[in-house]
């Protein structure tokens, strides 16, 4: 859809829209992204139903845990970004989860071997030693992570050409997990087509997914946004590709 609304109106609307939590319903009708084939929320729900104690790291607004039909007796979630904490507490009240605000660096505020299961969707960083510490022997870590060069087309449309990605490669995650004493039992990767239909959707996405264009502001990147707006109006869409990988590891 090429909108008839002007650049300034679309950008102002996206700047004013809230970005708390980790839901993307604001983009309905304005952007689409393919979903990974493994169905992360479904996998998490199945694991939660089979354990007694579970931890969700970087829960965002608690959107994944809130979908669990059979939560375990002990369910804890951590979140480091202050605006997300009340959102997560509200969303997770139904499943009886305790939401703990944490810092951006380790350690996790839990005793050793406290959980049968640790999960995390799109963690900022994975503290592998801490994950191993809080898992019980035989316990599992299940995580959907951001892959290397995700949304690179969008990053380069705003910032210009970028060097090849050095971080977030699945192989690096495997090595770090094994170094922490975990055994990787599953690893899958996917490239997902993402389509933006107006520049407002781009602005809102960049405000929310902050690593796509570090330090993004409308004022700083207005010229690039105008070019994107012109391109979307001419071509009907802007296409980029998200990269994800699923990793599951067990404590020996």
From TrEMBL:
Gene3D superfamilies: Vaccinia Virus protein VP39 (3.40.50.150). Keywords: Methyltransferase, Transferase. Pfam families: Methyltransf_11. GO terms for biological process: methylation. Residues 55-141 form the Methyltransferase type domain. One of its GO terms (molecular function) is S-adenosylmethionine-dependent methyltransferase activity. InterPro entries: 23S_rRNA_MeTrnsfrase_RlmA, Methyltransf_11, SAM-dependent_MTases_sf. Transmembrane segments: none annotated. It comes from the Bacteria. PANTHER family: METHYLTRANSFERASE, METHYLTRANSFERASE TYPE 11 DOMAIN-CONTAINING PROTEIN. This is Class I SAM-dependent methyltransferase.
């Amino acid at each position: 859809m090429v909108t008839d609304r002007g650049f300034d109106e679309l950008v102002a609307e996206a700047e004013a829209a809230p970005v708390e939590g980790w839901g993307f319903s604001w983009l309905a009708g304005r952007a689409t992204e393919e979903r990974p084939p493994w169905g992360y929320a479904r996998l998490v729900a199945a694991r939660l139903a089979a354990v007694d104690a579970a931890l969700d790291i970087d829960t965002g607004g608690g959107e994944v845990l809130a979908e669990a039909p059979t939560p375990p007796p002990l369910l804890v979630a951590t979140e480091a970004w202050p605006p997300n904490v009340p959102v997560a507490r509200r969303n997770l009240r139904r499943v009886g989860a305790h939401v703990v605000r944490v810092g951006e660096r380790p350690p996790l505020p839990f005793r050793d071997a406290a959980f049968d299961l640790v999960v995390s969707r799109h963690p900022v960083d994975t503290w592998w030693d801490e994950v191993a510490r809080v898992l019980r022997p035989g316990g599992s870590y299940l995580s959907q992570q951001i892959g290397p060069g995700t949304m690179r087309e969008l990053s380069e449309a705003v910032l210009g050409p970028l060097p090849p990605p050095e971080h977030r490669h699945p192989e690096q995650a495997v090595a770090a997990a094994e170094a922490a004493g975990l055994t990787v039992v599953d690893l899958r990767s996917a490239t997902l087509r993402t389509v933006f239909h107006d520049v407002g959707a781009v602005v809102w996405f960049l405000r929310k997914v902050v690593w796509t264009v570090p330090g993004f502001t409308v004022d700083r990147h207005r010229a690039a946004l105008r070019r994107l707006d012109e391109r979307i109006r001419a071509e009907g869409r802007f296409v980029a590709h998200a990269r994800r990988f699923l990793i599951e590891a067990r404590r020996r």
